[in-house]
Amino acid sequence: MGTSTILVAEDDAAIRDLLAHHLEREGFAVVGVSDGHAALRRARGAADLLLLDVGLPGVCGYDVVRTLRREERSVPIVVLTARADEIDRVLGFELGADDYICKPFSPREVVARVKSILRRSGGAVPESKPLLRFGRLEVDAQAREARVDGVDVKLKPREFALLMELAANAGVALSRDWLLQRVWGFDFAGDERTIDVHVHRLRAKIEDPWQLPSLLRTVHGFGYKFVRG
After folding, report:
1. Torsions phi, psi of 3, nearest 5?
2. d(CA 83, CA 22)
3. Around Cβ 129, how many Cβ atoms within 10 Å?
4. DSSP notation for the chain
5. Domain 131-226: assigned CATH number
6. What does each C-alpha distance from 146 to 48, 101, 131, 142, 170 come to in angstroms?
């Protein structure tokens, strides 16, 4: 069985690139489009699953679902939207969507949902990669350990969660606001300086004592990016 192709229809380039990064890292082929007309054209082709933003220009996401199902095309569809109301979710399912994910979302959750739907539909699902390796550094999601030269550097839970979020998005600049939402949650009462403090601690535990090259790069005025060593 060959590699599944995921069509990502999203007009926000940052979100589209982030999803593509995660999907490709898991072994999927990814095609990205930014409007509803392109989504329809591509979905009628070789796509094995469609990740579909509702608010697309040209043809809205719901109309894309409606058209594909009217044409009796069976490609699985996962709707991505900022609309959290029950009526919007019900509409998506009634039109023929297979799943519905509200923004902001965890890219890892999206990948997990994609894999689940592909398994049900008989699509090809690449083997998962539970361990991230960057030269001498290993980030082990299952053991919740960060190891340098095989030695656990003893990160606190928040430190590990922040490192995991950055390492899982290696090469992608993540804003401080995004990191706060993903690691601390929406109800966190602190400010963005919390991210700076925790990055400083990560550098002190991972980079400095082990003389590793700089892995956690500051993106001035925005946030941070994990750079492969």
Report:
1. -75, 135
2. 23
3. 11
4. --PPEEEEE-S-HHHHHHHHHHHHHTT-EEEEE-SHHHHHHHHTTT-SEEEEETT-SSS-HHHHHHHHHHTT----EEEEES---HHHHHHHHHHT-SEEEESS--HHHHHHHHHHHHHHHT---PPP--EEEETTEEEETTTTEEEETTEE----HHHHHHHHHHHHTTT--EEHHHHIIIII-TT--S-THHHHHHHHHHIIIIITTTTPPP-EEEETTTEEEE---
5. 1.10.10.10
6. 35, 30, 10, 11, 15
pLDDT tens digits for 43-101? Answer: 998 789 999 999 899 999 999 999 999 999 989 999 988 876 667 777 778 888 899 88
Segments making up each domain of the chain, as ranges: 5-121, 131-226
Q: Which residues pair with 32 in a beta bridge?
A: 8
Amino acid code (one letter) for 216: L
Residue type, 95: L
Structure tokens at 227: 């750079």
Sheet of strand 137-140: strand arrangement: 131-134, 137-140, 145-148, 151-152
CATH class of 5-121: alpha beta
Nearest to 47 by CA among 108, 110, 105, 124: 124
Residue 19: which of 87, 78, 97 has the closest Cα?
78
pLDDT of residue 77: 94
